[in-house]
Amino acid sequence: MKLVTPCPTKIEINEVAPRDGLQIEARFVPTEEKIRWIDALSTTGLRRIEATSFTSPKAIPNLRDASDVVTSIQRREGVDITVLVPNVKGTERALACQVDEINLVMSASNSHGLANLRMTPEQSLEQFTAILEVCQNSEATQDRGVFINASLSTTFGCPFEGKVPESRVLELVEKLIGLGIQGVTLCDTTGMANPAQVKRLCEAVLKRWPETPFTLHFHNTRGMGLANALAAWQAGISRFDSSLGGLGGCPFAPGATGNVCTEDLVHMFESMGVDTGVDLDALLEIAATLPDLIGHDVPGQVVKAGKSTRRYTPPVR
Amino acid sequence: MKLVTPCPTKIEINEVAPRDGLQIEARFVPTEEKIRWIDALSTTGLRRIEATSFTSPKAIPNLRDASDVVTSIQRREGVDITVLVPNVKGTERALACQVDEINLVMSASNSHGLANLRMTPEQSLEQFTAILEVCQNSEATQDRGVFINASLSTTFGCPFEGKVPESRVLELVEKLIGLGIQGVTLCDTTGMANPAQVKRLCEAVLKRWPETPFTLHFHNTRGMGLANALAAWQAGISRFDSSLGGLGGCPFAPGATGNVCTEDLVHMFESMGVDTGVDLDALLEIAATLPDLIGHDVPGQVVKAGKSTRRYTPPVR
To answer: Which InterPro entries does this entry report, sorted A to Z (chains A, B) (predicted)?
Structure first.
C-alpha cells in the first residue's frame, strides 16, 4: 500500500487553459496560435497539459481544431498531453492522435449533468463503460498505455441543487474506480468548496483509495481557490488542475471567475518551498502574453503584482 | 496561562476599510457619507472598526475629518472603535474623541519605516514610549481603559529590502510588549507572505506570548490573502484585520491589490463553520454600495458571485 504523506514536498500541475479556458472564450484562437502557445507551455515544467476537447464542433466551436492541435504540437518527454472526450466518437478521434491521457467528464449531481452533458451521473457511467471498451480494443492504447482519467464535476456543490452529499461523491468515485478508471479529478466546478470541506473529502478519498491518483480542480469564484488548494495539499493531495491566467469559468454560473490561476498556484507553493517542477519566470512570461492571445484582461494576480521577491526602489525624500 | 487552541471556533474581525481603504482613494468621501457607512458597518457584528487616522490633514487629506467622524458615529455595545495614531499629537486628538482603542504603526524594516513614516523601527519605538506616557496620563484612558495596539508593517517581507528575518520580528514584538503595548497586529503590508511562513510565525508568537492578543493583517496582492488567513487560523489566530470590498493597497507597491476582503473572509470562515459573529448578508448589502461610495469597482468576489449557497435555475433544454 502506498504511504499517504500529508503535505507533499512535490506537486504536479495539469494546465487546463487550452481546453477549460478557451472553450468559453468569445473568440476563436487560431490553430497556429494555440500550437505555439501549448508548445511554449510544455517547456516550463508543467507535468500535463489538457490540450483540447474532442467534442462536436457545434457544441464547442472554439475547439473545432482538436485533431490539428494535438497532432501538430511538439511532444516532450515528461509532459503528458491529455484531452477531454465526451463520448465514444471523441475517444476514437483522440486515440487516433496518440494522446497520452484521456479525460472523461461527468457530474456528481443530476441537474448539472443534465444541463452540461444531457446525462445523469448513471447515464455518464454507462457511457464510460462503452468508452473504456473502445480504449481496451484500441491499438493506440495497447501500444502506448493511454491513461484514463475521469473528472467529477460539482463534487463540492451544484449550482442548481446545492450540497452534494459526500456519501454520493464517494459512491460515484467507487463506481468510477470499479469501471477501470485510473485517475479521478474532483472538481469544484463553480467555486462552492471551502477549505474544511476540501480537507474532509480529500482525506476520505486518500484513505479509501491510496493507490488512485486524485487531482483537485478548483475555481476562484469566491476568492478561495488558493485556500482550497492549500487545504487539499495539507490533506496529502499532490496533483492540481489549474489554468494559466485564471482563464475559464462556468456557463451556468454568470459572474463567476475562472479556474484557479496556474502561475498564482505555482507562486504560492514555490514560496512555501514545495517543488512544483515549474519554471515560474518562464510561465509568467507566457501568462503575460494572454491578453493579446485572447483579447482581454485575465484574473491572474502574480503577473500584475510580480513575485513576492519583487523589489521596489524606495522613494526619494 | 491562556490555553492556545489551534483552529479557533470563533474569530473576530477588525474592519479597516474606513481607514486603510479610504486613505489611498483618489477622492474624498464626504464626512456624512463616512458616518452613515460606519454606522451601517457597526450593526453587522464586526467586533472592531478602524474608523479613521488622526494624521496630519496634509499627509492624508482623505481623513482630515477624523474628529468629526469619530464624535458623530453611533457607538454600539460590543463594537470597539479604533483609530490609527502616528504621533503624540494624534494620540491627544484621538483620546479627546473617546476612542476605545488606538493603533500605533511602525515598520519591521528600516527602509519601509523611513519611506512610510520617516522613522526607523527604533525611532518608532521611542515615539511609542512618548505616546504611552500620554495615554497613561490622560483622563480619557484612565476612565475608559483605552486599549493600545501596535501594527507591525512589513512583518512578512519588505518591498524594498526583501525578507525580514523572523528573529527581527520577534525582537520587535518583544520590545513592543515590553513597552506596555497590549495587542500586536502582524501586517503583510504588500502581500509577500505565504502560508508556510504565516504558520511558522503565528505559532512562534502564540507560543511565546500566549496572553497577548495577536491580529493578522493580510493583503491579497498575489491571491494568497485567504490562504494566509487560513494558515494563521490553523496556527491558532482568532483576530483578523480586513477591508470591505478589499479596499486598500500600498502606495509603494504599484499594481498591488488591496487588503484581504472582509466579506470574502467572513464567507470563507462561515462556510467552514467558524463563527465570525458577522451577519454576512447585511455585510454584503453594504459591500454592494461601495462602488457608489468611492466611485469605482472593488476587488471583492463574493459580492459579485454570490455566496456559495447561491442557487441558479437550470437552463431549459
So the answer is: Aldolase_TIM, HMGL, PYR_CT
Expressed as residue numbers, the domain containing A44 is 12-305
B97 is catalytic: no
Lowest-pLDDT range, A44-53, B216-225, B254-263?
B254-263
Cα–Cα distance, A21 to A19 (Å, whole number): 6
Give, for B267, the enclosing helix (H) or strand (E). Answer: helix B262-271
Q: How confident is the model at residue A1 (pLDDT cuts 50, 70, 90)?
A: very low
Residue B3 included in any domain: no
| Torsion over CA: B54, B56, B62, B64 (sign) | positive
**A183: its cell numbers:** 485517475
Nearest to B308 among A222, A226, A313 (CB): A222
Q: Please tell me the distance in Å from A214's CA to the nearest CA on chain B.
A: 21
Which of A256 and A170 is assigned the larger pLDDT? A170
Q: Above 70 in pLDDT, residue B254? A: no
Size of interface A-B (CB pairs under 8 A): 153
Q: Residue A5: is its pLDDT beyond 60?
A: no
pLDDT classification of A6: cutoffs 50, 70, 90: confident
Is residue B313 in a domain? Answer: no
Q: Which residues are A15's β-sheet partners?
A: A49, A242
Q: Decide if the complex's ipTM is over 0.90.
A: yes
Domain tally, chain B: 1
Has residue A314 been placed in a domain?
A: no
Mean pLDDT on B104-132:
96
**Does position B145 have pLDDT exceeding 70, yes or no?**
yes
Cell (9 digits) for B61: 487629506
Question: Chain B contact for A160, CB < 8 A?
Answer: yes
CATH at B47:
3.20.20.70
Check if B34 contacts A (Cβ < 8 Å): no
What average pLDDT does this structure show over A220-242? 97
| CA nearest to A19, candidates A119, A107, A86 | A86
Strands (E), A56-200: 80-84, 101-107, 147-153, 183-187
pLDDT tens column, A140-156: 666 678 999 999 999 99
pLDDT greater than 80 at residue A255: no
Annotated active-site residue in B135, B187, B202, B250: B250
Name which of A99, A90, A88 is nearest A126 in CA terms: A88
Whether residue B6 is contained in a domain is answered as no
Residues of chain A with Cβ-Cβ distance to B231 below 8 Å are: 230
Query: Is A301 within 8 Å of B197 when comparing Cβ atoms?
Result: no
* Chain A residues near residue B313 by CB distance under 8 angstroms: 160
| Cβ contact A305–B267 (<8 Å) | no
Q: Please tell me whether residue A253 adopts helix, strand or coil conformation.
A: coil
- Taking an 8 Å cut-off on Cβ atoms, the answer to whether B261 and A223 are in contact is yes
Cell numbers that stand for A241 in this block: 488542475
Which residues of chain A lie closer than 8 angstroms to B199, CB-CB? none
Sign of CA dihedral B154, B158, B160, B164: positive
Q: What is the per-residue pLDDT for A3? A: 47
